[in-house]
Amino acid sequence: MSDDGLSRRQYLSTVGGTAVTVSLAGCFGGGGGGDDGTTEITAGTAPGFPPFEMKEDGELVGFDIDLLEAVVDETDYTLAGWEEFEFKSLIPALTNENIDVVAAGMTINDERDETIDFTDPYYSSNQAIVVREDGDFSPSSLSDLSGRPIGAQKGTTGESTVQSELIEPGNLDESNYNSYGNYVLAVEDLQNGNIDAVVIDEPVAQTFAAQRPVVIAFTYETGENFGFGVREGDDEFTQALNDGLSTVRDGSTYQDLTNKWFGQQ
After folding, report:
1. Most buried by CB count within 10 Å: which residue of 3, 11, 41, 210?
2. Listed GO molecular functions (predicted)?
């Protein structure tokens, strides 16, 4: 990533569920432009999903942050800044033209594809079930979660898994499900004994397990793919991002970022 990419990081803290505006530049839907004549775009993300996006010493960092900056650097667009939201608010922010692209470990699925478009996939994942390291609960399948207080982040594949695989079939009472604005809060509740398990994307679970007294009990295969979210109809921008992503993948940058944030792959 270029030095210019690093200098753009002027972030503020998220307060509640409201967005934090990092740049006053308009989204390209409103015609914002850089000094060099390029079109400026604003990205949106949801911190609390390490190692994809998180705050360290007040700075927004992570795999998604570095990857999108590298991808945009390969296009004729300029990344003006980032805005932070709760995950469930990202798609409305995109469709309302408050941001131009979502970089937040967002799974490509049919429901979201009805409202927004996606770039080509940039990462694949499954769901992991995380429990306390020193606890006596050791589930090995989703059915073992029946009757237990379970947590996930609002609007995520983890929440969808709980709803479709446990609550809807009648294997888990709705009252046993706890939703959170971000996974940091969910894992903290797990550590404090308020819930017995968290359903979360596997690479994020691995990061929490390396940093906190929690472990992955088992993995539930979903075969999901992450993509950058874009507005429907922004075909030129979407193609530019796809071309930039392809360039980043073909070179060493993608592997370098993968090694940086996930360890040697």
Report:
1. 41
2. ligand-gated monoatomic ion channel activity
Instruction: Name the residue type at position 128.
Output: A
Instruction: Give the span between the Cα atoms of 21 and 114, in whole angstroms.
Output: 27
Q: Are 243 and 75 in contact (CB under 8 A)?
A: yes
pLDDT band at 3 (very low <50, low <70, confident <90, very high): very low
Tell me the C-alpha to C-alpha distance, in Å, between residue 167 and each of 85, 129, 146, 189: 27, 16, 9, 20
Helix (H, G, I), strand (E, B), or coil: what is residue 202?
helix
Say whether 140 sits in a helix, a strand or coil.
coil
d(CA 77, CA 237): 8
List Cα–Cα distances, 217 to 5, 34, 38, 128, 244, in angstroms: 38, 48, 48, 8, 37
Instruction: Provide the 3-class DSSP secondary structure of residue 44.
Output: strand
Among the four given CATH numbers 3.40.50.1980, 1.25.40.10, 3.40.50.720, 3.40.190.10, the one describing domain 3-122+227-262 = 3.40.190.10
